[in-house]
Design goal:
homodimer, about 325 residues, alpha+beta, six-stranded mixed β-sheet, four-stranded mixed β-sheet, 10 helices, 11 strands, about 30% helix
Chain lengths: ~325, ~325
């Protein structure tokens, strides 16, 4: 039998685990990696940051739209971005894979390679996991991180007068999803890539935390929805200039321009899964934060101000833009 | 609409999370619980122990055989037992729930209550999670723990001459599963309960670690299979007296006796999911460990000795007992 024809049923649970963990390099800060009842991860300041997410085949990813490798990278990225949004540095992930017995082993191995690659770029690693049989393919990722002695940056710390800043770019993932949904083959590859595998500005999390961020969240449901979560937790509102939101570069190209300003702005304001970081911080802290992020190649945009009251007051919003909203997995009709 | 008729589609992802986390009491050692991008859990000695497991409806549990509450308790228990098997004390769990939109909210709430109850008895808590829509019900649980300054007890530390000890009891879960599979209504409720929700001897993990355990594993695949994992990792073998294995009390009752000695012994040696703890330790350390566990109401049985070579040499095995083996999720034909 050729390797490409091997299924999980052929190699078995333990065979798959042996194949996958063989590619996982040990990393600093992991005294004990995969292979025992549990892993041991360093938590030098005496605290560990932890978050978990599920990704379901056909809803959170499609293997006909994304490579298995990109599915793995994206699964890691969305969890690692949650760690960054606390102002922490990712240290390790754990992965559960539920898969049909006839899943080709190469698919499982490619997912595992994508997970490892996204971690490795951050100096963290895959330290544990589980493999079970199920009718549908599903990934469960848990990420751990270190605050390095800082306080966690919660959603609830914004105060009136703080500036609203965004690290990373918005709208690319939604535009890519729209192009894939419409089977529009003229769309720029960069937008398809933005949907298949986000590029969260991980380093911005700890840097903004160290430079006075009062609240922070990552954009998974959409900028408007996620800033809304932050504002509700903080008990205040915000005035946001939609024209200042950092758009994905490819949204300025001819394909995106042809979709119309309302559609483009909708992607930027309401599109999810870019995993940009939205933070609030005192206005005096913004210039130093911009300079610090620029020094490591990351942009930081000041897009608005925290105000009394609740919700978001938009300025700079073109006419015809849909009401900014978020995403609820059980309520919306769209498959996602 | 009555509360019992509410589905996940009615309350939505955020509604369910709000309902479920409302019941989660904060615990010591959790500076930041559910509700932000990530939780923060104390790791006082600078290390965190972490493990993850998936449970699939129809394979790892059946809602017609177990209450949703017991499904939650079992999902927590099997992960918390992995933490104990490292010699660590559980500190927190994170839970992913993948569920059909028409799942009654009361089922999700009962699962969540079971998870919380199993944690609460140990002074740990549910600190985070995720809810997504999927065709099948699945739980992904990650457990964290603290070594409290001790070294982790790995599978690989057994040395020739060590004794093999077992905390907790064996065979109850397999007997209960057999009774449920056969729809045998004459089986003792205690055995059904042992399948529905294990009672791992959590406290034995840190106690055995503190008293010189050289290697440890929890029984999830079966005593023979899991001791086999430990011995392979340690590069040695063991001689085990099957007659000394601590059987579940209800295996001495008339129902179990009527199943035949070969069947009963098979449950004890090869049955999974009891989450007893199997450890190796120097013979001189055994009496003090037995006394220490007895003082907190836990039994510890000396069942054999680590020897040179590989595999398990059985003594005290009744004739007709099937070859001890383990469980591989993809290879075996049984639905599990």
């Amino acid at each position: 039998m050729e390797k490409k024809d091997l299924t999980l049923a052929d190699v078995g649970e333990f065979g798959l685990i042996a194949r996958v963990t063989a590619g996982y390099a040990a990393s600093e800060g992991v005294p004990l990696g995969p292979g025992d009842d549990a892993a041991v991860v360093a938590a030098p300041d005496g605290f560990v940051v932890a978050t978990t997410d599920l990704l379901v085949d056909g809803r959170h990813f499609r293997l006909d739209w994304s490579s298995a490798y990109d599915v793995g990278r994206k699964a890691a990225a969305q969890n690692l971005a949650d760690i960054a949004a606390m102002g922490a540095r990712p240290t390790a992930i754990l992965v559960g894979l539920a898969a049909p017995a006839d899943l080709p082993v190469v698919v499982a191995e490619s997912i595992a390679a994508g997970l490892a690659a996204e971690c490795q770029a951050l100096g963290c690693s895959v330290v544990g996991g589980d493999v079970v049989r199920s009718d549908a393919l599903l990934l469960a990722v848990t990420a751990l991180g270190s605050l390095e002695g800082r306080d966690p940056v919660r959603r609830s710390g914004a105060v009136v007068g703080d500036r609203v800043v965004v690290a990373g770019s918005l709208g690319g993932a939604a535009a890519g999803l729209a192009a894939l949904t419409a089977a529009d083959e003229t769309a720029p590859p960069d937008l398809l890539s933005a949907h298949r595998c986000p590029s969260p500005p991980y380093a911005a999390g700890p840097m903004l935390a160290a430079r006075g961020a009062s609240a922070m969240i990552d954009v998974s449901d959409g900028f408007g929805a996620d800033l809304g979560h932050l504002l509700r937790a903080s008990g205040c509102g915000a005035e946001v200039n939609a024209g200042r939101l950092p758009r994905h570069a490819a949204l300025s190209g001819p394909w995106a321009l042809a979709q119309g300003e309302d559609v483009r702005t909708g992607w930027v304001i309401s599109g999810g899964e870019d995993h940009a970081l939205v933070a609030t911080m005192p206005s005096g802290a913004v210039p130093a934060a911009i300079a610090a992020l620029a020094a490591v190649g990351l942009g930081l945009s000041e897009v608005g101000e925290v105000v009394a009251g609740g919700g978001i007051r938009w300025t700079g919003l073109p006419p015809g833009v849909p009401e900014p909203g978020g995403f609820d997995h059980f309520r919306l009709a769209e498959s996602r």
